[in-house]
Amino acid sequence: MTTQDDIKKGLAGVVADTTAISKVNPDSNSLLYRGYPVQELAANCSFEEVALLLWTGELPEAADLKEFSEFEAAHRELSPELKAVIDALPTDCHPMDVCRTAVSVLGAQDPASEEDSQEANLTKSKKLFAAMPAVVAYDQRRRRGEEIIPPRADLDYCDNFLYMTFGEVPAPEVKKAFQVSMVLYAEHSFNCSTFTARTIASSLSDLHSAITGAIGALKGPLHGGANEAVMETFDEMGIRKDESEQEAEKRAKEWMDDALAQKKKVMGFGHRVYKNGDSRVPTMQDALTDMIKYFGREEMLGLYNGLAKSMDEAKGIKPNLDYPAGPTYHLMGFDTQTFTPLFVAARMTGWTAHVMEQLADNSLIRPLSDYDGPEERHVEK
Ligand SMILES: CC(=O)SCCNC(=O)CCNC(=O)[C@H](O)C(C)(C)COP(=O)(O)OP(=O)(O)OC[C@H]1O[C@@H](n2cnc3c(N)ncnc32)[C@H](O)[C@@H]1OP(=O)(O)O
Ligand SMILES: O=C([O-])CC(=O)C(=O)O
Predict the structure, then answer these.
(1) Catalytic residue at 378?
(2) Pick the catalytic residue: 139, 322, 330, 354?
(3) What pathway annotation does it carry (predicted)?
(4) Least C-beta-crowded within 10 Å: which of 4, 38, 44, 271?
(5) Are 288 and 324 in contact (CB under 8 A)?
(6) Where in the chain is the domain with CATH 1.10.580.10?
(7) Domain 226-332 sits in which CATH superfamily?
(8) 106 falls in which pLDDT band (50, 70, 90)?
(9) Residue % of the chain over a pLDDT of 90
(10) Could you tell me where in the chain the CATH 1.10.230.10 domains are found?
(11) What is the ipTM of this complex?
(12) Whose CA is nearest to atom 28 of ligand 1?
């Protein structure tokens, strides 16, 4: 007989498997990728190095990094067929729909799609890693009616990503903040989208199918879609460039008090695992502060602090990574709906690492349910 205590709604608190990829520790408020604190990786490593760390378990030697960087640079271009599929999608569909469709097409186009060796899956992972920036940049530019900018092989991943999106090699400050966001977003154990990828992989489906499903899971505002929703909150409050930091903070506090009085859920706050603050937020907040200084937009800091202080005072709920990431991407010039696709590009590393880990020691993921529908009955006719 199943009791209410046996049912773990949302699988909260359930340990579903082991993983050697990352350790989320809410007690020490820390996050390790393959044993390395994420803050150290964000400060000292390129996103390419972190990708290799997540996939292989070790930070790369110089020769391996060079080889991967060359592979990545050689696999950035989208095929004419994929471009045609993207062009056929409405410009008012959500950019996450474009990412999901693009990965599905990339799977159908990959001759090794059905090969399931670890080697084949690692190659597929690297190709997806290389292609995602082009998908995201292509889609933002086509929506804006801007000319498409081909990738530049002489630029590294982050410089090229921003170059393809905005047509300029970014200032070092902007590139740094962007790279920090990619590293922080890369991996987070059995979150909803990663668990989705592992569930799909557990049926021995192919890697692209697992990633396509993960993108669908990430889209929702309770997960990755929150970074976009944070910006919607800022827009709802109204961003006033001529406002002082203090005025903006006061206004944001009032907005939050009002939202909480109406029992609204405010996106960018709260977390299933961290209950005393997300380990990644201080580092991302520093990157946001750097961007606020760089672009001279102190009113954004007022809005940011006002909401966070008011939420903390009223409910003790802390921001998650999506909260500082949203306004950071806004300041860089990304369209709001492009924020979650940026998360896709980053999380491609963690998702694919988890698919490979799942397959290395697979067991079909299939929990039980407690039936509470009608008693057995019979068709009467
Ligand atoms: C990168 C990421 O994916 S991070 C997560 C991004 N998602 C968001 O920012 C969406 C907003 N946050 C939320 O919806 C939640 O905090 C979740 C889904 C992330 C975690 O949820 P859970 O662990 O299931 O906690 P749950 O939703 O039950 O919240 C517990 C309590 O805190 C409140 N709460 C949690 N988050 C928020 C929030 N963002 N705004 C207002 N209240 C909140 C809930 O209303 C609930 O209150 P109650 O006990 O009075 O009913
Ligand atoms: O871990 C989670 O539940 C959500 C999250 O922060 C992430 O995926 O980065």
Answers:
(1) no
(2) 322
(3) Carbohydrate metabolism; tricarboxylic acid cycle
(4) 4
(5) yes
(6) 19-222+336-360
(7) Cytochrome P450-Terp, domain 2 (1.10.230.10)
(8) very high
(9) 98
(10) 226-332
(11) 0.98
(12) 272
